Amino acid sequence: MAERVIGAERAVEAVFREEHGLLLASLVRRFGDLDLAEEVASEAIEAALVHWPVRGVPARPGAWLLTTARRRAVDRLRRDQAYAARLAVLQVEADRAAPAAPPADAATDADLPDERLRLFFTCAHPALPAEARGALMLRCLAGLTTAEVARAHLVPPATMAQRIVRAKRKIREARIPFRVPGADELPGRLPGVLQVLYSVFTEGYAASSGPDLQRPDLAEEAIRLARILRRLLPGEREVTGLLALMLLVHARREARIGPAGELVLLDEQDRARWDRAMIEEGLALVPVALTGGPPGPYAVQAAIAALHDEAADLATTDWPQITALYDVLSALAPSPVVALNRAVAVAMRDGPEAGLALLDELAGEERLRGYHPYHAARADLLYRLGRLPDAAAAYRRALELAGTEPERAHLRRGLEATGETASAT
């Protein structure tokens, strides 16, 4: 009996993880309220934990959960007429923007349209605070608990709970629509969704603070959500570009960390440890993202990542092509960070002096003053030019700004290579 209960719990967990966004989106579309949808989804999960060990896991577990959740929602609305009336007003307003969902009491596979695209755009709505968008996406679409989302954002669970509550209140009070933007709005809204996903991935691939260099579970959640988004928007090439970029970068995750958890830079990585299957998947997506019109920023970044992943080592990397792609990216999405990355590519193509000249031109950029990779790049080029006192000063500044212990340890080693002692930092 105990084994059956454990098996049912695992089945519920697996279904919930895969179906959570689909279930929640269907409930929000049906009832028009995110809080109600989350409450009845949780109640449906609790009911599954009671019934499935006894009756067995149903043939269509997602449909079972949706039917149960819908019935719980109807019961709640019957008990609270004032709440039901308020939701009815909101639903009428929502229905003006999109056709109403068909009523249903018992769900079948045909009653489970994929409404997650609506939820992507709601979670990433520009009216919401930037800090709340990634949190909502992880909570609502990835199915992470509030505590898990809090760990992802490195804040206490109570702080994250308040952040999520405020975001949901904003959705309700500002009447943020649960709908996919029209064709005229989509070009302006989709980049916001992609930016939220990429921010989640970046925090997972290169943590901003803490004891660990990477948080692979967070990066993998971002990739999973990007896969879902691509299935929902197969014709949007920038969605494909973002997924390709994530795959090609995440494929190097195992080689970025040494045996003691230390940072291993690209030129020192054992490329045999790169995930070849993930690289092949990403490489196949790059041409799709690049063809059919002018490329977008994520497609160009994916092409750069592909050149890195295809090279046997740093010496055989096609630095002229990478530099040319950074020129394209600079025209599409100019930023100090893009300029920094281009300068590093130029240093690899033309030598450290050429790269350093470009970095020095960026010294006045406010965004780079507190960005430790900028100072670390300067330190490396200064060291390669034999300007050891200047390199030491740049390493010290990078050390002051680095957020994770593996990064700080790497910078301390660089500082010590200049003849300075890290203990003075």
Offer a quick outline of the entry:
This is RNA polymerase sigma-70 factor (ECF subfamily). This protein is mostly helical and 425 residues long. Helices cover 70% and strands 0% of the residues.
Polypeptide structure, described:
By secondary structure, the chain is mainly alpha-helical. Among the domains are: 1-96, no CATH class; 344-425, Alpha Horseshoe (Serine Threonine Protein Phosphatase 5, Tetratricopeptide repeat), CATH 1.25.40. It is 70% helix and 0% strand. The chain is elongated. Residues 92-113 have low confidence and may be disordered. Belongs to the sigma-70 factor family. ECF subfamily. It holds the Pfam family DUF6596. GO terms for molecular function: DNA binding; sigma factor activity.
Kindly report how far apart the N and C termini lie.
Answer: 60 Å
Helix segment tally: 20
Category from helices, strands and their pairing: mainly alpha
Strand residues, percent: under 5%
Helical content band: 55-70%
Outline, from the CA principal axes?
Answer: elongated
Average pLDDT works out at 86
Question: How many distinct beta strands?
Answer: 0
Give keywords.
20 helices, mainly alpha, 425 residues, Serine Threonine Protein Phosphatase 5, Tetratricopeptide repeat, RNA polymerase sigma-70 factor (ECF subfamily)
Which helices and strands appear, and what pairs or packs with what?
Elements (H helix, E strand, L loop, with lengths): L1 H30 L2 H22 L5 H19 L1 H17 L18 H8 L6 H12 L4 H8 L3 H17 L12 H20 L10 H17 L4 H14 L25 H15 L6 H14 L8 H14 L3 H15 L1 H10 L4 H4 L2 H13 L3 H14 L3 H13 L8
